[in-house]
Amino acid sequence: MTILVTPSLVESVGDIVINIEREDCALIDIKSLHFFSSSIDDINEAMQLLPGMELQDLCSSSSPFVALSFRGSDSIASVRALVESSPFCNGVACPRIGQEQEFSDFFLSKHRSTTATLEECTACVIRPHIIKDRMFGQVVNDILARGFIISAIQMFRLDKETAAEFLAIYKGVFPQYRILVDEMSSGSLIALELKRDNNLSGNVVEDFRAQAGPWDHSVACELHPHSIRAKFGKSTVANAIHCTDIPKDGVIECEYFFKVLAGRQGMH
Questions:
Q1: pTM reported for the whole predicted model
Q2: What are the residues whose beta carbons fall under 8 Å from the beta carbon of 3, sequence distance 6 or more?
Q3: Distance between CA atoms of 20 and 60, rounded to whole angstroms?
Q4: Could you give the CA distance from residue 74 to residue 33 in angstroms, rounded to a whole number?
Q5: Can you point out the beta strands (E) in the chain?
Q6: Backbone angles phi, psi at 52, to 5 degrees
Q7: Can you tell me the distance from the alpha carbon of 232 to that of 228, in angstroms, rounded to the nearest whole number?
Q8: For 24-74, how does the pLDDT look when each residue is reduced to its tens digit (9 = 90+)?
């Protein structure tokens, strides 16, 4: 079952996922999207799938929509009932009965353009163990509470070759490199392009790296107990998130996921 979160509720994506996963429905896909540069045909199809959506609301927002897909026992009925009874119901769109597959294919299309700006950003990758443990919502809430803005989000599944390509800089430097590659390719992960709130100053890469905490989970727990890795990590390898290390790599790492890998997906 796929739902669409409108821009007004993007900051509530974590809470929405938490509420739905409590009902034994696992998050299996997520992608941010926008329509302000879409074709007329694309906009018309979106309007048909979103009864009650105003054209201005669909096309004018610079903030992204977020499409999420869940799987579980009777997930269509369960997710629909949860959304309709939740405080988020006015900002979350569900497909009409009988249009579930069409809704999912359209809003989660691999050919749909990314919302990544690839400017003044940093990359955060939520590791597979977080997705498996259904802790994505809690991690996202924590990131947003620290003053960061999600400008793009997408789920990926890396094979070992692709994981090794992304992590090549750590080969020969990080003793557990091979185990790290195995972990990054062990299941779905979620990439985020993050920016700073406009009212806050500082370099977004350095700021987020400081909030992430030390790579080693035990060190993070001892020296920075309130860091993201201390709160959600389990070990040096399963340390909750990857984050960009140095400022010049912020755009490069975001491009790798939202341009290179997303482009490869769109080719299939």
A1: 0.93
A2: 16, 67, 68, 69, 70, 79, 83, 92, 93, 94
A3: 29
A4: 27
A5: 2-5, 25-33, 65-72, 92-93, 122-126, 148-157, 188-196, 241-243
A6: 95, -10
A7: 6
A8: 889 999 999 998 877 888 888 888 898 777 777 787 767 899 999 999 877
